[in-house]
Amino acid sequence: MRKFDLEHVYESQQFDSELLDIIFNVADEMKKDLAAEQRRYSQVLNDKIMASLFYEPSTRTRFSFESAMARLGGSILTTENAKEFSSASKGETLYDSTKVMCGYADLIVMRHNEPGSAKMAAEASSVPVINAGDGSGQHPTQALLDLYTIRDCFPAVDNLSIAMVGDLKYGRTVRSLSYLLTKYDNITIYFVSPSVCKMDDDIKDYLTVNNVEWKDESSLEKVLPLVDCVYMTRIQRERFHDPEDYEQAAGKYIIDVEQAGLMKKESIIMHPLPRVDEISQKVDNDPRAQYFQQARNGLFIRMALLLLLLGNDIDD
Amino acid sequence: MRKFDLEHVYESQQFDSELLDIIFNVADEMKKDLAAEQRRYSQVLNDKIMASLFYEPSTRTRFSFESAMARLGGSILTTENAKEFSSASKGETLYDSTKVMCGYADLIVMRHNEPGSAKMAAEASSVPVINAGDGSGQHPTQALLDLYTIRDCFPAVDNLSIAMVGDLKYGRTVRSLSYLLTKYDNITIYFVSPSVCKMDDDIKDYLTVNNVEWKDESSLEKVLPLVDCVYMTRIQRERFHDPEDYEQAAGKYIIDVEQAGLMKKESIIMHPLPRVDEISQKVDNDPRAQYFQQARNGLFIRMALLLLLLGNDIDD
Amino acid sequence: MRKFDLEHVYESQQFDSELLDIIFNVADEMKKDLAAEQRRYSQVLNDKIMASLFYEPSTRTRFSFESAMARLGGSILTTENAKEFSSASKGETLYDSTKVMCGYADLIVMRHNEPGSAKMAAEASSVPVINAGDGSGQHPTQALLDLYTIRDCFPAVDNLSIAMVGDLKYGRTVRSLSYLLTKYDNITIYFVSPSVCKMDDDIKDYLTVNNVEWKDESSLEKVLPLVDCVYMTRIQRERFHDPEDYEQAAGKYIIDVEQAGLMKKESIIMHPLPRVDEISQKVDNDPRAQYFQQARNGLFIRMALLLLLLGNDIDD
After folding, report:
1. Across the interface, do C96 and B275 touch by the CB < 8 Å criterion?
2. Any idea where the domains of chain B sit in the sequence?
3. Burial class, B112, CB count within 10 angstroms (exposed 0-12 / middle 13-18 / buried 19+)
4. Contact C275/A92, CB-based, under 8 Å?
5. What is the distance between the alpha carbons of residues C149 and C272, in angstroms, rounded to a whole number?
6. Omega before C194 cis (within 30°)?
7. What are the catalytic residues of B?
């Protein structure tokens, strides 16, 4: 079988279907190990240090990575103040910051506000760099955990119909997930969004070239009975000039008990979180609601990446 | 003997005298263990993760919990920026934040600005939640460490006279401690405070119903010779409209060498810290000064709670 | 051999040449251990807790200390918000903060904005305190790692010529390093700086008294061929009233490929980092460029200090 041969993880385009399989299989192993009476991997990274270098705070993502590292026995250096590094007044480059950080850690997890920064850091780094979100750029581990959640419910992934709902223009999760879905056969995506935040053409063209069928739809009700998975996202108020437009748009794309009733019995409801009111709390106990499990899956995916990037063999 | 049967710790009213005994006995065991040549408990939680979720910074309380976790071998995820979670702009509920956090940690320590928030989080959480202060609400582990300090000096606790001095209206420590003191017999409390920050009637009524004698006093000098314990608190300048009133009030309730001279030989002086000048630094070397030991006792109490909540049996 | 007998590390003047040798030898041992297949020291501090108490953020220095602690198996409590401790509104003294912190940690690393604060904390503390920079005061571990870097390239240190370039008035690193250089024989220092940020007379007098030869020079080109080591520092724009003066000064003291060409073949280029454009990125691959190694050396020095201060014997 092909080896995991990435040195860094900075964008979704790095993954082909073989790499995805490798990652997901290790994630499955991690999930099993965390539930085991006697854990096999609890100390496997106990001589390794991960640096969480967050140029903007993101407690959720940071905790998910740090929990993954702790579950493998590793140590953590952490900051939500990484901007201090490259402050205008001091003017250090990301290149220099990364060069210094390599001397202190065995792996760097970076959240930065500028697209492309993770790739730049990877080029400077002598240790693996994982992109934990670079502004309007990518958030590849989120895309992996999203796809892992879909695969957990539909192991083949092929032949699925998926609705992506809400802010498809600025929401990087749906963009990154779209890239990954091209690795599977016979996928159909419904893009359901207000007109001000439609999915951009670059993704649509990429899907077309890669044989993924897609359709723009404005009615959520019409799409719900058709899909195996509905992926909700938060619509950001600040995208709208007119508050009334926002109210109308936000109110139009909500999953309440009634909407859930329109969905297939075997379908799933996803959300990258945080949610505002796109999904009613009443839906949380519906067995199709997968968003908290989705967040939890981030742990397995990140444990898998830490293990694979740090070169640990998970076979006996 | 009764088992420790709490799933969470959010308010002082959860404790009865049996639970207090269980906690204090484990705390004694922790104190002994920390002083031992060969520690028995140094790795007992090494497969556990504690998340410090601080919606407002409190280095002292946070370090005390984190030190407790580290002394037991556990891992720590930490943030002083938890507000980012529930920011108005993103609008996530505490319920959702807690649901996500449960997937990453085995126990959550939460400091929040809104009263009742810890209890709300506990209801959402599948792992134990400890309240590390919820605004003007409660700070139950502080009350435990206060009582533990008293018990350390007066093992029976019964029959004591205690002066609570300073800001009794806004200081939650004296309120929480009052609740716990009702578990003991023949306690007398003297409330010594400026008129603008007197102890509220709800506590006084609760004490009366539970057979704790209390008296309002305005003269500290009059009370000092009568009590076994004086519990000083900081008077906050911002409570006073007139700066002169503040100066007068603050200046009236100070323990200097002279005031300490009025106290019984076997009495003790406590303070939840930070102090400003309620207690002169000259008193620090008086053997009756217990406030730094009191802060240190927080470590033993928090180690005990971590062990008990994470279900570890401390008996052989 | 003399024992390491410091309880705290707060200023460069604490070190004599014997202590320097002890520290550097342990640092060498750490460097070797980190590169070893089987590490001997990876768990040696696993029952110890280090508190990083940063009253102002400094991710680089903090991570260097925390990495050192993690590489030795120890636990870490960390804050970049330590100011909350001593906030004007609460008014706690550094003395009290330190007294409390001693109860939670086995060693305190402190970064503070006020000169002398580390020494004050050391006096209050029952556990070792390391100064990680106190305002315009000292940053002794930086001086140690600077000297360690020089010694790594020129083991005897004696007989060296060193140029210190840039902001010599406000840059505490060059001041602290100057103190340490007096421990060696036949050292010559060239001070190369704009007239507004010349090295102060106190250091010059100290050097003279201690038999270190020094010269003021304004031309970098003239000095480069003469020295074994050029220590570049960042010139801070805010020191200059006239922006034009700044441009001229900053532009005058730059190491580009051309300037590097003037230097001896066996010389080295150092910089405490962060750099702005005092050293061109094109010089990074020149084998004489030691600044990233210099940053990395901080790890070995800090591991050595942690071991020595926590009383661990590194001999068999």
Report:
1. yes
2. 12-138+296-309, 140-294
3. buried
4. yes
5. 11
6. no
7. 60-61, 90, 111, 139
Identify the pLDDT of residue B246: 82
Q: Looking at the complex, does the CB of residue A56 fall below 8 Å from at least one CB of chain B?
A: no
Q: ipTM, 2 decimals?
A: 0.94
Nearest to A310 by CA among A102, A16, A49, A21: A49
Single out the catalytic residue among C31, C62, C139, C234: C139
Q: What are phi and psi of B4, to 5 degrees?
A: -75, 115
Closest CA to A141 of A269, A40, A12, A249: A12
Buried b (16+ CB within 10 A) or exposed e, C112-139: beeeebbbbbbebbebbbbbbbbbebbb
| Cβ contact A273:A291 at 8 Å | yes
Q: Whole-angstrom distance between the N-terminal and C-terminal Cα of chain B?
A: 16
Distance CA A194, CA A1 (A): 44
For residues C229 and C268, is the Cβ–Cβ distance under 8 A? Answer: yes
- CA dihedral sign of residues C90, C94, C99, C104: positive
A99-113, pLDDT tens digit by residue?
999 999 999 999 998
Q: How far is CA C266 from the centre of its chain?
A: 23
Whether B85 and chain A come into contact, CB under 8 Å, resolves to yes
Quote the CA–CA distance of A30 and A307 in Å, as a whole number: 10
Distance CA B49, CA A40 (A): 17
> B92: which chain A residues are within 8 Å (Cβ-Cβ)?
273-276
Identical topology for domains B12-138+296-309 and B140-294:
yes
Q: Which residues of A are catalytic?
A: 60-61, 90, 111, 139
Q: How far apart are CA A90 and CA A83, in angstroms?
A: 11
Nearest to B92 among A62, A67, A275 (CB): A275
Report strand pairing: A75-79 vs A107-112.
unpaired
CATH 3.40.50.150 fits A140-294, yes or no: no
Buried b (16+ CB within 10 A) or exposed e, B283-307: beebebbbbbebbbbbbbbbbbbbb
Between CA B271 and CA B275 the distance in angstroms is 7
Superfamily grouping for domain B12-138+296-309: Aspartate/ornithine carbamoyltransferase (3.40.50.1370)
Burial (0-12, 13-18, 19+ Cβ within 10 Å), B135: middle
Tens digit of pLDDT per residue, chain C (316 long)? 678 999 999 999 999 999 999 999 999 999 999 999 999 999 999 999 999 999 988 889 999 999 999 999 999 999 887 776 554 446 788 999 999 999 999 999 999 989 999 999 999 999 999 999 998 888 999 999 999 999 999 999 999 999 999 999 888 899 999 999 999 999 999 999 998 889 999 999 999 999 999 999 999 999 999 999 999 999 877 777 888 878 877 788 999 999 999 999 999 999 999 998 899 999 999 999 999 999 999 999 999 999 999 976 555 4
Q: Kindly determine whether residue B70 and residue C49, on different chains, have CB atoms separated by under 8 Å.
A: yes
Residue written as token pair 């580009």: C256
Distance of residue A75 Cα from the nearest chain C Cα, in angstroms: 6
What are the tens digits of pLDDT across the range A14-62? 999 999 999 999 999 999 999 999 999 999 999 999 999 999 888 899 9
Q: State pLDDT tens for residues A144-181.
A: 999 999 999 999 999 999 999 999 988 889 999 999 99
Pairwise CA distance, residues A316 & B54, whole Å: 41
- pTM score, whole prediction: 0.95
| Chains interfacing with A (3 or more CB pairs < 8 Å) | B, C
3-state secondary structure of B85: helix
Chains in contact with B, where contact means 3 or more Cβ–Cβ distances below 8 Å, are A, C
Among left, alpha and beta (phi > 0; psi -120 to 50; other), residue A303 is alpha
Give residue for tokens 């003279």.
C208
Q: What gap in Å lies between CA C199 and CA C174, rounded to an integer?
A: 9
